[in-house]
């Protein structure tokens, strides 16, 4: 009975095979835009979906990206970061990126994507498309404002501190690392603390021997608008080292600005809560990958089993 | 020009130990003087900007370039290939910063000394040939400079192979030669934020519009004539 059923399955293709191969051949609709940079669900954790209103007919109209204010008044970071700096940095630079992106994507296929998906799509494997700089700079600045708070600084605590100690040796060593990254970014750019999940840096590669140690904190720097999302890292903290971030306050003394940021402004609470989200996201993705792997194994083992039965058909018949 | 022997400086400093750096001694660099006062380019570029730009930024490139050259010298002496390669980015950045700023200071001139006066010599003719008109060149360089993402430079260059003048941009402190060995810089405009932020803030296009009032076309013409001869 069982054998007959398997034989039947082996000779007639399973009903799901055709649609399945069809969809994989076509790829999901977002594939053409994001390529292999990540599945849409992998970005869910930080996705700020824009509200799309359906008009009569089939086309939907997306709300424009809006300039999000910092989570504190513009003078709240004084004297370490002046109100004037915030007025220009947020009120002019950040606003400029928002206005320009809205202009660039209006009426294009990017119009309905989240900010993160626009970043990944327009990064275009390093061959940047024009909206990339504006989209990434909006994301970076939102993230930067939320990396600071009035009366910030001090030391992190809890699991964040444990991971910093584990991955950098000590909090002081971490500070040295991020300070160096921020000071030595040639030209405009950003320094980051990021959570690097259990992934290889090679496209589509699977880590053959994953351990918990693979998931670690890293300090990286990035030029101009680039951010760690494009490497599939989860950013936890950023320091803007474009000159416009500090020039009105400390002119050429980038080192002083970095010190103010780390000692007086950084919000370790924000970093801790980002770490929580990043870890949950990594677990979610692992589970998803496990599930996908199981499904694939089941699918292929179905086929293999069937072939074995087909090959051994005569033996089986004799046994019967 | 701004060269001096490190070995000589070391012994003068009284270290009592003269390092022999390479067969001929390692040449290091020092900050060249500006050919005008810090305030001489006002109102196009403020004295404060000029002073910081020259004394702090350019000096920092020179300091770090010299440091990298010393490290390079030591790495070569030791035959440490990976250390030699590792130093390349610091050399390109800081050395480029020194080279670019040295050109930039010569590209500027106070109005009363002829700053902003368009070229009438063979360079003027070459500009017309390549771009249609002097104004078209300015429009093009302003657009390239405004569109440059992050920090960098916009250049008017002589391409010695094509025998014509071209506009190029370079990122960060990449010197023009990184865009082609046949390119000779005639005019470089610094579009790093430090070049204009204290005065023009986020409005880079206004800086670009005003800098033409203090461009030293005499210098660019001289380089053009020498290099195209």
Automatic annotation (TrEMBL), chain A:
Domain named Manganese/iron superoxide dismutase C-terminal: residues: 156-207, 212-274
Disordered: annotated segments: 282-320
Parts of the chain that traverse the membrane: none
Gene3D superfamilies: Fe,Mn superoxide dismutase (SOD) domain, Iron/manganese superoxide dismutase, C-terminal domain
Signal peptide: 1-17
Keywords noted in UniProt: Chloroplast, Iron, Metal-binding, Oxidoreductase, Plastid, Signal
Catalytic activity, EC: 1.15.1.1
Pfam families: Sod_Fe_C, Sod_Fe_N
Record PANTHER family: SUPEROXIDE DISMUTASE, SUPEROXIDE DISMUTASE [FE] 2, CHLOROPLASTIC
Protein name: superoxide dismutase
Automatic annotation (TrEMBL), chain B:
Reactions catalysed according to its record: 2 superoxide + 2 H(+) = H2O2 + O2
GO molecular function, one term: manganese ion binding
Manganese/iron superoxide dismutase C-terminal domain sequence ranges: 121-222
Keywords for this protein: Manganese, Metal-binding, Mitochondrion, Oxidoreductase
Entry EC number(s): 1.15.1.1
Enzyme class at the top of the EC tree: oxidoreductase
Chief place of localization: mitochondrion
InterPro entries named in the record: Fe/Mn_Superoxide_Dismutase (IPR050265), Mn/Fe_SOD (IPR001189), Mn/Fe_SOD_BS (IPR019833), Mn/Fe_SOD_C (IPR019832), Mn/Fe_SOD_N (IPR019831), Mn/Fe_SOD_N_sf (IPR036324), SOD_C_sf (IPR036314)
Keyword Manganese tagged: yes
Protein location: Mitochondrion matrix
Task of the protein: Destroys superoxide anion radicals which are normally produced within the cells and which are toxic to biological systems.
This protein's name: Superoxide dismutase
Taxonomic path: Eukaryota, Viridiplantae, Streptophyta, Embryophyta, Tracheophyta
């Amino acid at each position: 009975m069982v054998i007959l059923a398997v034989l039947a399955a082996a000779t007639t293709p399973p009903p799901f095979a055709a649609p399945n191969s069809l969809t994989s051949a076509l790829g999901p609709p977002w594939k053409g835009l994001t390529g292999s940079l990540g599945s849409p669900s992998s970005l869910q954790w930080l996705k700020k979906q824009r509200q799309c209103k359906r008009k009569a007919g089939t086309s939907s109209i997306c709300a424009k990206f809006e300039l999000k204010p910092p989570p504190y008044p513009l003078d709240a970071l004084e004297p370490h970061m002046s109100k004037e700096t915030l007025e220009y940095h947020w009120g002019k630079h950040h606003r400029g990126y928002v206005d320009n992106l809205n202009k660039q994507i209006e009426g294009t296929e990017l119009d309905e994507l989240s900010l993160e998906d626009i970043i990944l799509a327009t990064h275009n494997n390093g061959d940047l498309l024009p909206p990339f700089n504006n989209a990434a700079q909006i994301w970076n600045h939102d993230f930067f404002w939320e990396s600071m708070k009035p009366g910030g600084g001090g030391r992190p605590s809890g699991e964040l501190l444990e991971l910093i100690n584990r991955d950098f040796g000590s909090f002081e060593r971490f500070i040295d690392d991020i300070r160096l990254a921020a000071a030595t970014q040639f030209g405009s750019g950003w320094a980051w603390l990021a959570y690097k999940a259990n992934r290889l840096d090679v496209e589509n590669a699977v880590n053959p021997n994953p351990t918990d140690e693979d998931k670690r904190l890293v300090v990286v720097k990035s030029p101009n608008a680039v951010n760690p999302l494009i490497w599939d890292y989860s950013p936890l903290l950023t320091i803007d080292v474009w000159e416009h971030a500090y020039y009105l306050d400390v002119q050429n003394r980038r080192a002083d600005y970095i010190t103010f940021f780390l000692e007086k402004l950084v919000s370790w609470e924000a970093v801790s809560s980002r770490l929580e989200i990043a870890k949950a996201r990594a677990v979610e993705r692992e589970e998803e990958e496990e599930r996908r792997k199981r499904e694939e194994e089941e699918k292929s083992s179905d086929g293999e089993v069937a072939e074995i039965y087909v090959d051994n058909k005569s033996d089986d018949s004799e046994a019967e | 020009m701004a060269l001096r022997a490190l070995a000589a400086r070391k012994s003068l400093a009284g270290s009592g130990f003269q390092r022999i750096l390479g067969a001929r001694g390692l040449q290091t660099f020092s900050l060249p003087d500006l050919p005008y006062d810090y305030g001489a380019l006002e109102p196009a570029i403020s004295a404060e900007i000029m002073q910081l730009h020259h004394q702090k930024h350019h000096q920092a490139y020179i300091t770090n370039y010299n440091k990298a050259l010393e490290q390079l010298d030591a790495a070569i002496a030791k035959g440490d290939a990976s250390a030699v390669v590792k130093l390349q980015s610091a050399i390109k950045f800081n050395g480029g910063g020194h080279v670019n700023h040295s050109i930039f200071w010569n590209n500027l001139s106070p109005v009363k000394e002829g700053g902003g006066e368009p070229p009438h010599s063979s360079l003027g003719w070459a500009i017309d040939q390549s771009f249609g008109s002097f104004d078209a060149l300015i429009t093009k360089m302003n657009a390239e400079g405004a569109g440059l993402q992050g920090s960098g430079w916009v250049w008017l260059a002589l391409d010695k192979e094509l025998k014509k003048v071209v506009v190029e941009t370079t990122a960060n402190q990449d010197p023009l030669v990184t865009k082609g060995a046949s390119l000779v810089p005639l005019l470089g405009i610094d579009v790093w934020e430090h070049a204009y932020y204290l005065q023009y803030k986020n409005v880079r296009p206004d800086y670009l519009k005003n800098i033409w009032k203090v461009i030293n076309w005499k210098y660019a013409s001289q380089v053009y004539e020498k290099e195209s001869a």
